[in-house]
Design a protein that fits this description.
The chain has 427 residues and is an alpha/beta fold. The protein has helices spanning 10-18, 26-42, 44-55, 66-73, 78-96, 135-148, 167-176, 186-195, 212-221, 246-257, 272-286, 292-302, 311-321, 333-337, 354-359, 395-411, 415-422; strands at residues 3-5, 63-64, 103-107, 111-119, 122-126, 152-157, 180-183, 205-207, 226-227, 235-240, 264-269, 304-307, 325-329, 345-348, 385-392. It folds into three domains: 3-21 and 232-361, Rossmann fold; 26-101 and 119-227, Nitrogenase molybdenum iron protein domain (Rossmann fold); 393-422, no CATH class.
Length: 427
């Protein structure tokens, strides 16, 4: 059941949702700092020690050879691999449109200005291990990097108890074009990517989800390398009109609730009748879900419904919350889309459930959480590029504008800056 709140209380709801993202404890920070320092100093020796300590396996060589990748990938379900192949094509289709190009501008007196768009040299992708395996995230992280032009894409993932690579992860890596894979996880894996070891060369950026120790490690190495984000609990907000199917609405809310007890599922609607029917469907559908306990806890803690007088009022609440996933389950979603200002990804109409975007549609599922959609974007090709400007002044141009530059430099008491122009001016 969703607890109903007053539309005017949506700011309190935002504060409540923000409270889910707890600060990383001092204890975790200290432990992760210790691991980072050990890997930075001892390199491979520290990696092996921590892999044995945390994963319970002693690996002399943690690089995954090509034949091991092929052998593991061959064990994946062929139907699943074919579904991933089609998803890959969709992801490529969408992300190819994101590619940027540099430009060159010309002004009078021989002045040229321009910008180059350059790919990062190397990227590290963290893929969770253990019971959780997310091959879709391999596609979502690696494909945009490859389209951006990144030459070296490294994947790290914790080893199984048998020291093997999960078949689905291996198959996804092959499809996405990842050839450099290491069986190492946790904070020690992040340290290896950031600082390098005898086996793993350091990278320029680290992306991908992980547990609290991985999140802390990414936070601590930021600046040495770039990172994608520190993700918070997942969230969905569904805007539904009176014609929406309550079974669809309930199913989509539950698709987020099953992630985590801290995941939030929010319905904003113009119909009290729809809300009543959605609550009935939630009870019905939850009863048969394998992750029923997680779902019930999530809905109890963060399941919320708000009834508004108009769809525009619904969108205003969505903009205030800035959800990770926003579904516009209304009759004319494109007309409502232009009012949306803050959302990680938007799903339009009665049939576009969030699951389509998570796996198959082509848009990226690595999205800003915890209201950060107000100022940040989904992972994409832009995440794996850098921009470098360039400028050329001719002798005629420096003679024409040199006095202006000198004046500005002297106002900031930077005489050497001014002199660098003076020595080029004609007597």
């Amino acid at each position: 059941m969703l607890r109903q709140i007053d539309p005017n209380d949506h700011e309190k709801l935002r504060e409540y949702l923000d409270s889910r993202s707890e600060d990383i404890s001092t204890e975790v920070i200290l432990k992760v700092t210790e691991i980072l320092h050990a890997v930075k100093k001892e390199k491979d020796a520290a990696i092996r020690r921590y892999t044995k300590q945390f994963d319970g396996i002693d690996l002399e060589d943690y690089r995954v050879r090509e034949e091991e990748i092929n052998e593991a990938a061959a064990q994946a379900d062929p139907k699943f691999v074919e579904s991933m192949r089609q998803a890959k094509a969709n992801i490529e289709y969408f992300h190819n449109a994101q590619k940027q190009h540099g430009y060159l501008l010309e002004k009078a007196k021989g002045i040229y200005l321009g910008q180059r768009v350059l790919p990062l040299d190397s990227v590290g992708i963290y893929v969770p291990g253990g019971r959780a395996q997310y091959p879709s995230s391999v596609l979502m992280n690696a494909i945009p990097a490859r389209i951006a032009g990144v030459k070296r894409i490294v994947m790290i993932t914790p080893p199984s108890k048998m020291g093997t690579l999960h078949p689905n992860i291996a198959a996804a890596a092959k499809l996405a074009g990842v050839t450099e894979i290491y069986k190492v996880g946790g904070a020690q894996g992040i340290a290896a990517l950031a600082y390098g070891t005898e086996t793993i060369a350091k990278v320029d950026k680290i992306v991908g989800p992980g547990n609290i120790f991985v999140a802390a490690a990414k936070k601590l190495v930021y600046g040495k390398v770039d990172i994608d984000m520190i993700a918070g609990p997942s969230e969905i907000l569904v805007i539904a009109d009176a014609d929406a199917n309550p079974a669809y609405v309930a199913a989509d809310l539950l698709s987020q609730a099953e992630h985590d007890p801290m995941a939030s599922a929010i319905l904003v609607t113009t119909s009290s009748k729809l809300l009543e029917n959605v609550n009935k469907e939630l009870v019905k559908q939850t009863a048969v879900l394998p992750k029923r306990e997680i779902v019930e806890q999530s809905l109890k803690n963060y399941g919320t419904a708000i009834c508004c007088a108009s769809l525009s009022a619904c969108v205003e609440i969505a903009n205030a919350i800035a959800p990770e996933h926003l579904e516009l389950m209304v009759k004319q979603p494109m007309q409502l889309l232009h009012e949306v200002r803050h959302a990680g990804s938007v799903f339009l109409g009665y049939y576009t459930c969030e699951s389509v975007g998570d796996y198959y549609g082509g848009t990226n599922h690595v999205l800003p959480t915890s209201g950060t959609a107000r100022f940040s974007s989904a992972l994409g090709v832009d995440s794996f590029i850098k921009k470098s400007s360039y400028l050329q002044y001719s002798e005629e141009a420096i003679q024409a504008y040199g006095d202006n530059i000198i004046c500005m430099a002297q106002q900031e008491d930077l005489d050497a800056h001014a002199n660098a122009v003076k020595v080029r001016l004609k007597k």
